[in-house]
Amino acid sequence: MPEWVFETTELFERRFRQYKKKHPQETAATLNNLETYRQALSAGVERSRIQAGFIHREPQGVVAIDQQGAKGGTHETRLYTYAVEIDCVLHLITMGDKNSQKRDLKDCRSIVSSLRRK
Q: How far is CA 42 from CA 12, 20, 68, in A?
């Protein structure tokens, strides 16, 4: 089975740096869940068949990974991804919380549309 790789957007890089400073425990738990998702993809599990409490399916094939498993009072966190199965690339689009969710999903729609045109 081919190994899935991450590809980040500039938006993700910027938001990740901000989020890591403000919410380090949630960020660590979200990254752990992201790695679990990537390992399932690398094992050959179809993305639509991967089931876990930290996975939230969004429009246009976007999958949001949350902070489930973080210790203490956790801040709702979402890391938005888009998988391209042909290339085995998991695009990391953006990261946010409930307050930014509407904007984050709008950004996801725009970026996924751009990825699909390529």
A: 22, 26, 21
116's tokens: 């699909």
Question: Would you tell me how many other CB atoms lie within 10 Å of the CB of residue 40?
Answer: 18
The pLDDT confidence band at residue 2, using thresholds 50, 70 and 90, is confident
H/E segment holding residue 84 = strand 78-84
Q: How far is CA 57 from CA 60, 82, 89, 96, in A?
A: 9, 10, 18, 15
CATH code (residue 74): 3.30.2310.20
Task: Domain count for the chain, please give it.
Answer: 1
Paired with 26 in beta bridges are none
Interatomic CA distance for residues 108 and 100, integer angstroms: 12
Domain that holds residue 17: 5-117
Instruction: Write down the pTM of the prediction.
Output: 0.94
Report the side by side order of strands in the sheet with 62-66.
Answer: 5-8, 89-96, 78-84, 62-66, 55-57
Which residue type does 12 have? F
